[in-house]
Amino acid sequence: MRKTNKVFHLAIPCKELNETVEFYEKLGCKLARRYDDRVTFDFFGDQVVCHLSPNNIDTKPKMYPRHYGITFLEKEEYDSALEFAIQEQLPFFKDPMVRFEGKQEEHMTFFLIDPANNLLEFKYYHDSSMAY
């Protein structure tokens, strides 16, 4: 299990810094650092670095295999995140859905898409043992 003294780090491409900052701040992420070629965010307690790389943007993103996000352990937090995304009119890649219905790994999920076509998944498992 993860100790609280560790932070997961993810680096992704972005096509333009200002729109990237606007999206992630609107999502509720705190801008930690900004340089001429990248921005770093506190992404729900972990670190996401968006590197300016306009020639490396996925023009036809697909949910699988490349996405990242948050798995909520409390349904209320998932519900709040979904309501927030709707209220803030964040761009959905896939509307909320239930995956693996009726199975132990059943979960609720929705996907957002950032300005560089990076896909973000937010999900909640009814059986918390399936979170890993």
UniProtKB/TrEMBL annotation:
It holds the Pfam family Glyoxalase. Transmembrane segments: none annotated. Residues 6-125 form the VOC domain. PROSITE patterns: VOC (PS51819). InterPro entries: Glyas_Bleomycin-R_OHBP_Dase (IPR029068), Glyas_Fos-R_dOase_dom (IPR004360), VOC_core (IPR037523). This is Glyoxalase. It comes from Aquibacillus halophilus.
